[in-house]
Amino acid sequence: MFFRTPRFIRRWIRRRMHPMAEESALSTKQKLSYAYIFFAWNAFALVIWQLSKGNKYWPVTQGLAKKEDFELDRPAYGWAKALKIEKAEVYRFGSHGLKKTEDIQIDSEEKKSQPEASQK
Question: 92 - beta bridge partners?
C-alpha cells in the first residue's frame, strides 16, 4: 500500500527546502551510497567475525538481545509448550544415530506467571 504524506508535512518541507542542481544531487546521492556500503559491509564483517570465533549468540554479547530469547526460539521448546508437556526430553538424530541432548522443564516458568496474573 502507498502511504501519502500528510499535507502539513509536505508544506513544511517545501517551505524549508530548495531545489538542488542535478549534478550536486547526484554527487550527494553517490556519497551517501558509499557511506551506506561502508557501514553495511562492516556490520556484515562483524557478524561473520563473531560467528567464526564460535560465538553463536553474538547479539547477546553485543547487548542487542537476551539469552532467554534464543532459548525460547528452539523448536523443541515450542512443541513442548504447545503440547503442554511439563518435562520433556529432547533427542537429536544425526550422523551418529539417535542421541539425547537435553531436558526441558516448562512448569517452573508457567507457574511463576500464573500467580501474578491472578493477583492483578
Answer: 99
